[in-house]
Design the sequence.
């Protein structure tokens, strides 16, 4: 705000445009995934995201640059919303129902736990090296998710995956039958006793 001489109103409008972009990306994600495939769509979105940082790095004071920054933030968060919505949907589809809560808890712990650490490091870097240097490093770090996705099998995913088979519950498992009757040692089977009895009766 100080470097670009941006008023609090203009700053709020820029942030509002970013929020609208995130909502638009999340709403358009299913249609884009069906049209070009979830993998290519996420790869494209993560590839566009670092590019949208360039206007902020080149900006100077003025209304024109403020508009450009707002449009860039709208596009950046639209890409983030589309990619984030799609990857969360894939994660929920391929996770068994009895593991959904644990998967979501781990994901939330990792993402929410990283935010204060990232904010602390960004503030320290901005204080030490300057705001523009911190923004350049942040733009370079936005390439990391793109590289991770490009090296994973998800990059070529053309359709949403199917749900995994659910494990059978205790009620659905077949119940074992009664154990076989084992005759006591030295005792003749009942069928043999009946046959011997009939033979004796016929002889008399």
Sequence:
């Amino acid at each position: 705000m100080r470097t670009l001489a941006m008023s609090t109103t203009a700053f709020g409008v820029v942030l509002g445009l970013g929020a609208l972009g995130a909502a638009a990306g999340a709403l358009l994600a299913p249609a884009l995934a069906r049209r070009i495939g979830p993998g290519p769509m996420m790869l494209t979105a993560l590839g566009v995201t670092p590019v949208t940082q360039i206007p902020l790095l080149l900006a100077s004071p003025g209304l024109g640059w403020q508009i450009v920054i707002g449009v860039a933030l709208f596009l950046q968060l639209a890409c983030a919303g589309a990619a984030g919505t799609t990857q969360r949907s894939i994660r929920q589809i391929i996770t068994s129902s009895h593991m959904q809560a644990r998967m979501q808890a781990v994901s939330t712990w990792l993402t929410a736990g990283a935010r204060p650490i990232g904010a602390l490091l960004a503030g320290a870097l901005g204080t030490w090296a300057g705001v523009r240097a911190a923004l350049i490093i942040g733009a370079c770090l936005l390439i990391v998710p793109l590289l991770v996705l490009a090296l994973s099998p998800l990059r070529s995913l053309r359709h949403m995956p199917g749900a995994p088979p659910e494990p059978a519950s205790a009620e659905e498992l077949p119940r074992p039958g009664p154990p076989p009757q084992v005759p006591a040692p030295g005792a003749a089977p009942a069928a043999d006793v009946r046959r011997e009895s009939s033979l004796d009766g016929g002889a008399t």
Summary: The chain has a mean pLDDT of 85. Helices lie at 8-36, 38-51, 54-58, 63-94, 100-129, 131-141, 143-150, 190-203. The chain has eight helices and no strands. Residues 22 and 81 are 5 Å apart (CA to CA).
